Amino acid sequence: MRTVRRLAGLLGAAALLVAVPGNAEAASPTYAGTTAIGTHNAYDKAKYPYFAQALDSGASLLELDVYTDSLSKRWRVSHSNPLGNDNNCEAAKTPGELYSKSRNQDFGGCLDNIAAWHQLHPDHRPIVFKVEMKNGFNNNGGLGPDEFDTLVRQKLGGIVYKPSDLLGSAYATLDAAARADAWPTRDALKGKVIFELIPGTVEQANPFDSYWTDEEYADHLRDLKAAGTLSEAQAFPAVLGAEPGDPRTSRYDASIRPWFVFFDGNAATYLDNGYDTSFYSANHYILIMTDAAGVSPAISSTDPTDAEVAARLSLLAAHHASLITSDWSAKSAAVLGSVTARS
Questions:
Q1: Which of 105, 192, 312, 326 gives 89 a disulfide partner, CB atoms 3.0 to 4.6 angstroms apart?
Q2: Can you point out the beta strands (E) in the chain?
């Protein structure tokens, strides 16, 4: 039965897809009512020589891997080197310096690139920056949630859409705000960026670390709200991993469950196991489905045809994804900038 539904989704792709290059929108649903495309590990020089080109790509999500380097008190951006930087972020703080400076900068350098690029494109599409905290925060070492917030706020200021923006003055928790669909429209989010935090592979493999990024940042949000200072928070923690039902229930203390409205898991795991993902769209949560190319029937993870991308976007939108990700950096901005209605 699932195969039949998938084939139907593929055949109906042309009818369902609204290909939207750049900022243009055929309608103005809330942000939670749309599905768009993101790029896995967008800091990789093999994908984009410069991070500004990743920003140019049209993708609605760009991923960065960040290590807390406690020896140097730096936030490193790299796939596998916790003590150094290996990335396409450049030493560019102004628009005129983009696409020309030395690369392999730290996380602050990547934020500088975003700020400079934003000056060139102040009405850009809303972009989610998915930050995998590879080895987690190190709060005792001065690289905790507070310091993360301070760095993002110093570099990007008012262009960040924050948890307090979703909460407004009407809701007590992010969960309550999401359930009420308090998200702005995509048009209202033009020129804004959103930070999503997930626990990293090194952190998860560390037998001495049981306090991961997701829980730590959710605790941070809860405590800031209690102190009346939630506006300081710059990011949304995500529940990582595809599970049936509400994965918050088995993982987190009741006091922090309402601070998760981002969910992030493998697309094939959701679909192949027949998980009922309508839970996410019914509550207006943001659901990120990764490895979109791996869903049966699998397509190229690097350079599928435009029609295959359109069909995959349509299929996963029908399964309630908000954002789908793969390694499709070779595709044009018109393709990566596609947006469709979320079922």
A1: 105
A2: 34-39, 61-69, 74-77, 127-133, 193-199, 235-240, 262-266, 286-290, 323-326, 339-341
Cβ neighbours, 10 Å, residue 184? 17
Indicate the pTM of the whole model. 0.92
Nearest-angstrom CA–CA distance, 91 and 110: 8
What does the alpha-carbon distance between residue 68 and residue 200 come to, in Å, rounded to a whole number? 11
Alpha helix stretches (DSSP H) within 62-132: 107-120
pLDDT digits (tens, 9 = 90+) for 219-237: 999 999 999 999 999 999 9
Pairing of strands 339-341, 34-39: antiparallel
191-212 per-position pLDDT tens digit: 999 999 999 999 999 999 999 9
Q: Do 290 and 265 touch, CB atoms closer than 8 A?
A: yes
Write the DSSP symbol of residue 325.
Answer: E
Please list, residue by residue across 241-259, b when 16 or more beta carbons sit within 10 angstroms of its beta carbon and e when fewer do: bbbeebbbeebbeeebbbb
Q: What is the DSSP string of 33-59?
A: GEEEEEETTTT-TTT-SSHHHHHHT--
Q: Which residues contact 207 (CB under 8 A, 6 or more apart)?
A: none
Report yes or no: 124 and 191 within 8 Å, Cβ to Cβ: yes
Distance of CA 340 to the CA centre of its chain: 17
Farthest CA pair distance, the chain = 55
